[in-house]
Amino acid sequence: MRTSSAYATSLAPNFGANVIYDEIVRNRFPVVGIIGAGSLARLHLAPAIALGVDLRVLATSKDDSAAQVCNYVIGDRNNLSHVLDFARQCDLVTYEDGAVGPSIVKGLEAEGIRVYPRSSTLSQSRDREQLGSDLDLIFAVTVARSAHGQTCTWSPTQVIMSDGNIVGTVTPAPLITSEVSASAAEIALTLADRFGLVGVMTVEMICKGGLLSPHKLVMQPEIYGHWSIEGSVTSQYEQHLRAILDLPLGDPSMVAPYAVMGTVIGRDKSDMYRPYLHLMARNPELKFHQYMNEVAPGEVVGHLTAVGDDLVHLQEIIEHACSYMSGEIDE
C-alpha cells in the first residue's frame, strides 16, 4: 500500500511472520554476503556495522576495495562452486551490479540460498545502449522494496554525463517539475512491484517533450544514490540491507534542500590524501569517500558529496574539489 506522498515509505506490513527475523535475528545478528568486492560493496560496510550485521565479501584479491575493510573470501564469482561455498557461510547473499549473471543467481536459488535480487528480477535489467542515445534529460529514481512489499523512493536525481560516463548527480533533479517527479516515482514503484524487487533498484529515465520513458534499470545500489549517504535520513546502502533482511524500511527523506555528488577520476601520480589539506580548509562541508582501489588514469577512485540550501554554491565546490582531487587544477 502506498501513502499519498510519492517519496514516503509505504505503510509497513505485519512483520510478525518475518521468516528471516524468526530464524536469524531472534538468536543472533545475520551474516550478509556480497558477491563482488568493489567500491559498491565497500559502501555497505558503515551501515552494516551500525546495524550489527556481519558483512562478508567474495573478492578476487585481498586488494579489492571492499576486501581491504571487510571480512572476505577469495574466489571466482563466475564459478558456481566457489560462489556456493561462499554463500553457505552466509545467512543470505546479495551482489554488486554486474558482478554475476543470471545463471549464477539461478544456481544459488536452486540450492536453496537466499539471494537478492532474484534471478527473475535481474533479467529485467536494461542498458541505455539498447534504448538509444537521443536524450533530452537524464534523471533517475532509486526505489527500495522489501520481501513483504514495503516500498519507498528517494527524490529524483539529475544525472550528469561526460563521454558516456556518469560524473555527478544533483538531487532533487532541478530541471523537472513536481508533477514529473511524482510521475517518475510512481513509475519506479510500479516497476519494483511488477518485478518482485527485493532490495534497491534505480530506474534511469529520459524526459522528451515532457514525456517520461524508463531508459535503464539497475537492480542494485549504484552511483545514482551515492548522494543519499549524507543527503538522506536513510542511505540506499542501509536501505538495501534492511530490504533484503526484510526489516522495516527507513525514512528516505532528504536532510537538506539539495545534495550534489561528483566522482573523482584517477590520473597519473594522483595523490588522494594531500588534497585534503586544501579542500577541507576551503570547503569544510565537503564529504569524501575514497575507494582505495588502484589510482589509474580514467578510473573512478572516489566521490565527493555536499548538501545544503544553495545549489549553485554546492555545484561550484563539488566541481572544484573533483578537479583538484583528480589533479586537473592545483589551486
TrEMBL record:
<dbReference type="InterPro" id="IPR054350">
    <property type="entry name" value="PurT/PurK_preATP-grasp"/>
</dbReference>
<dbReference type="Pfam" id="PF02222">
    <property type="entry name" value="ATP-grasp"/>
</dbReference>
<keyword id="KW-0067">ATP-binding</keyword>
<dbReference type="GO" id="GO:0005829">
    <property type="term" value="C:cytosol"/>
</dbReference>
<protein>
    <submittedName>
        <fullName>Unannotated protein</fullName>
    </submittedName>
</protein>
<dbReference type="GO" id="GO:0005524">
    <property type="term" value="F:ATP binding"/>
</dbReference>
<dbReference type="Pfam" id="PF22660">
    <property type="entry name" value="RS_preATP-grasp-like"/>
</dbReference>
<dbReference type="InterPro" id="IPR016185">
    <property type="entry name" value="PreATP-grasp_dom_sf"/>
</dbReference>
<keyword id="KW-0547">Nucleotide-binding</keyword>
<feature type="domain" description="PurT/PurK-like preATP-grasp">
    <location>
        <begin position="32"/>
        <end position="123"/>
    </location>
</feature>
<feature type="domain" description="ATP-grasp fold ATP-dependent carboxylate-amine ligase-type">
    <location>
        <begin position="140"/>
        <end position="237"/>
    </location>
</feature>
<comment type="pathway">
    <text>Purine metabolism.</text>
</comment>
<dbReference type="InterPro" id="IPR003135">
    <property type="entry name" value="ATP-grasp_carboxylate-amine"/>
</dbReference>
